Structures are given as C-alpha cells and as structure tokens.
Amino acid sequence: MTDPKRLILNLFEMNCVSHITHGLWRLPGNRRTAFTDIEYWTELAQQLEAGGFDAVFLADVIGTYDVFRGGPDTAIREGLQIPSNDPMLVVPAMAAVTQHLGFGITFSTTYEPPFSFARRMSTLDHLTKGRVGWNIVTSYLPNAARNFGLEGEVDHDTRYEIADEYLDVLYKLWEGSWDDDAIVEDREGGVYADPSKIRYIDHRGPRYSVAGPHLSSPSRQRTPFLIQATQSARGIEFAGRHAELIFTGGRSFEQVSGTIGKIRDELERQGRARDDIKFVVGATVIVGATREEAEAKLAEYDRYASIDGVLAHASLPFDPTAHPGDITVGDALRREGRGDDLAATFLPQEQTIAEFLATFSGFHRKPFMAVGSPTEVADEIESWLDEHDIDGINLVQYHSPDTARDFIEYAVPELRRRGRLREAYTPGETLRERVHGVGPRVVDTHPAARFRGGQGLDEEAILEGRASV
Questions:
Q1: What architecture is domain 8-300+367-458?
Q2: Which of 148, 167, 422, 468 is 20 to 30 A distant from 211 in Cα terms?
C-alpha cells in the first residue's frame, strides 16, 4: 500500500494592502495595513513555521492597474496592489526568525538586467541556507512597460523569448561561473578563492551581453527553486523547459487537469521526466470548529468584498457598473465604443450585465474552494490531491492573521492525522529538497545543469591569465 500524497502547503501573500481579496483589508482585526511593519512579516513567518507550512509565496507587480475606467483611480482607492513594496526585502527578516520556512519570490524577466538579479537571488539563497524559490513572471501590465521606458506592453510571446535568454544568462552565472571547490580559504597561503576555478561567462545574445564572473560564490541551491504560473501555450513550452513547480488554475477541475496534462507532455518532449514538475493551485479554505462557524466567516467576507476592486484587478476594458443590468455585455461595449477592442473579444458578450457582474461578486473562488469543519475541509483537500493531479495549494489569505491561524488550528491536525502533512521539518533541507525529495541542486536533465563546471562557456573565459574587466 502506497503512502498518501503529501500536501505542499504555501501561504499566498503580497507586500501590499489588497492582494486578491479586495475590500477585506477593512475587516475587523485584519492587519493588512501593517504590511509596512517588519513585525508583520516576522510574526507571520513564525506563525507559518509553527504550523508546518512549506513556504510563503510572495506575489508582485511592477505596474499599476490602470485599464479599468481609463486610469489608476479605482486601484488607488482600493489599495489594489498599490502601495506595493518589494517582496525580496522582507525575506531576510522572515528568514532570521525561522529555520525551515521557504520563500517563493516573484520577479519579472522583462525589464531589469539579469546580472544584478542573479546576485540578489544568490545572496538570499546564502542567507536562507537554500530556502528560496523564484516565481518567474514576464509582467503583463501595460503600466509596467511604461514604467521602464517603453511605449506599450511587450508582446506576450516576445516576453517569453526574452525570458528564455534571461534564464540562459542566469544559469551560466549560477551554475557555470564558479566551481564547487573554488573557495579554498587558505589562510597560510593568503588565498581565499582559486582564480583557476572561477570563469567569465561571456554571454553574447540577441538581447544581453554579460561578461561575468558571477559575484556570488556558490550557494546551497545555486539555481534557486524555479516556480512559474502559466496556462498559455507559450508559457507551457517555457515551463516544460525550466519550471520545477507550477502555480496554475482554471474555471473547472477539467480545465486545470487539461493544463497539467499538457505540461507533462511538454516535459517529456523536452527530455525531462513527467513528474519533474509539481503543481499547486490557489485555494480558498475557510475552516472553523463547525461548518456553521466557517460559513459565517464566508458571509462576513462577502459583506466586505469590493466589486470595484475585483473589476479593476481584472483590467476590464469597460465599466459594467455604469450600465443597466438587463442589457448584454456586447451592447454595453458598443455603447462605450469598445466593441472592436481586442480585449473585448474575450468577454462573454451575450451575457447580461447582471449575469456578468454576478460572476465577479463574492469570494466563491471555485473549483478549489473548501468551507466547513476540519473533517469537511480535509475531505475536500484530499479529493483535490487524489482526483485532480495537483500536489499542493497556495492558501489565499482573506484575513491576516485569521486565515493562516484557522488553518493551523483546525485543518493541520486533521491533515496530519491522515498522513497528508509532515509531523516535523527535516533539519537543514533546502526548498528544492523539501518539494521534490531530491538533492539541493537542479537535476541533470534540467537545462541549467548543462553549464556545470563551465561546460558550454567560452573556454578562453577562465579568469586566470586574462585581463580584468
């Protein structure tokens, strides 16, 4: 008899007031507005580690949601990911008060050069002793492009072309620039590092020219644990090449299973094993001592929910709240002169405005939603693991700290009793080891591995005997 599949358990967070549960920062006792205080993050980290969480997954954006109603005013009023602070900078504080909790950090490949990012991630991997992962994104907000000097958003597939080269540069720095034994610490001979074992990478590609060497010595994982969120065809191709964990979702179990199947096929096509990627989904879990208690919490969350925040987050190209409920979405778009907009083609134009708005109201985030007692919630989570080919969840934070506290108090003991959560951490394990049960480094079939020991680099790029740059 095989052991039950263990749940990968992360908390879904962001360094802002309103992440994805818009309006709920106003809930009584909610500490969302304390996100600028270091104590918010250190206390959260300690809470999660005490509850056995694998990691905290930190989302990020580098632009403002300014499509809805033609500007950023709605997002600003709602605190919708603005103000928003850097997710990387809270990690050292959380790592300092924990020993085991992992950290998934979102960073975009589209606008900032790879060399400095490589050093920042290596630094975090050193400071956390290998507990960091990188959520690779390409940034879709039009405002993000304008923030970095571009006229408009970079085309979707072009962003992935940029990302592929970006990753090549990073792999060369992380895996190929330094040998494992480059640090010798020879005090008598006065040699800290052996220059014959440290290389320039001399990357020259269509978008980047990076000499190297990497400024950081090899960290526990070298390449941080690689995460990606995707559903698109180009994203799936990219994931099959690079990702080790996928954050995915969909409107139905069937849609999610279909995406997972496509990614597994892509893994195989690229010479990787079908189980080289683990899959997590965003999940709503509202649990109490009884079902009635959990349902009362959900009802309170719905009362505070902001439809304006949800619509602005969706970057709708029109304002449905400005139209009568009995006309269709298509009619409303035509009234606003947006019937031919590209974004409008993805909207359900035959639905009435009332029907359309109903799909945005409340926080009923199906299909991965569980509301009830500890037993009922654990039953749902087990069905997700066993019937829908997922490996874990990013628990959506509705109330800080109640969401995580309730899960720890009510759900964790029941899931442990069923063998779905570990009883204790393994001391000293990296995030990669925890999630995949392999060593701290990427596996040999991963594309980063091809640069180990300086393979694939210019043989004349050895530092020894070459003029410094």
A1: Alpha-Beta Barrel (3.20)
A2: 148
